[in-house]
Amino acid sequence: MVNDRQSLDLTTLARSQAGATVEWRISDSPVPYPDAVAVMEERVAAIAAGVAPELVWLLEHPSLYTSGTSGNSSDLLEARFPLFTTGRGGQLTYHGPGQRVAYVMLDLKSRRPDVRAYVAGLEAWIIRTLAAFNIRGERREDRVGVWVKRPDKGPGHEDKIAAIGVRLRRWVSFHGISINVAPDLSHFGAIVPCGVADPRYGVTSLADLGHPASMAEVDIAVQQAFFEVFGPAAALR
Asked: DSSP class of residue 29?
């Protein structure tokens, strides 16, 4: 069976307003989650009003858990870190140092007002980023995010290396993706990540797979892959 998300034509996601570019921002120190949400809320309103450009914001959070609109309280096994209930799609996940979070604020009205295509674009973006480090990431129809096959752990075992959780308001996106570069993977042990309890499915990172990379190297790959999927972007700053 053809994977619907794989078969989507993603080229239309790159269609934005003539001459428009995407602003990029990098935060050098961990950003508290409520502060990040406040910034996104303000920027999304400004983009929707046509008074601010689209934005991709790269950052890390201090160790915390977030629960999306499909979250289940029973998936929090141990309250090691603060838990924030949030309006993004998805379930429970961990954010913390060593994980690159990308909050993506795009005007899908000027690109393609299609949630399914947008999520497929995010998956393609992550997969292309991982390919720069010789990691084969794959999408799964029944599990959101990007996965890596781990035959070394047993038949059919796969680990999640990147998560996706989005929200749209007036067709402007916010929240986004997270890629595990070199976080403390034991922190995922206090939750059922994204509600996936099957022991065949775990969590991994670039470092865990034997592909260590600096956050700066990941950021360069992230921007290049974004350009390939979503179109022109301003320089990182």
From this structure: S
Other Cβ atoms less than 10 A from the Cβ of 66: the count is 24
Measured between alpha carbons, how far is 228 from 94 in angstroms, rounded to an integer? 28
Considering Cα of 39, then 161, then 146, then 17, what sign does the dihedral take?
Answer: positive
Q: What is the pLDDT of residues 90-138, one digit of tens each?
A: 889 999 999 999 999 999 999 999 999 999 999 999 999 999 999 999 9
* Distance separating alpha carbons of residues 222 and 105, to the nearest angstrom: 15
Active-site amino acid positions: 194
Cβ count near 95 (within 10 Å): 24
Rg value, the chain, Cα: 17
pLDDT at 1: 26
Instruction: Count the neighbouring beta carbons within 10 Å of the beta carbon of residue 14.
Output: 15
Amino acid occupying residue 95? H
Strands 55-59 and 23-26, how do they pair?
parallel
Q: Which residue has the tokens 């674009």?
A: 121
List the structure tokens of 164. Answer: 């996706």
Cβ–Cβ < 8 Å for 190, 148:
no
Per residue in 178-203, pLDDT (tens digit) is 999 999 999 999 988 766 777 788 99
Q: How far apart are CA 153 and CA 38, in angstroms?
A: 41
C-beta separation of 57 from 25 below 8 A: yes
Closest C-alpha among 229, 227, 218, 179 to residue 21 = 227
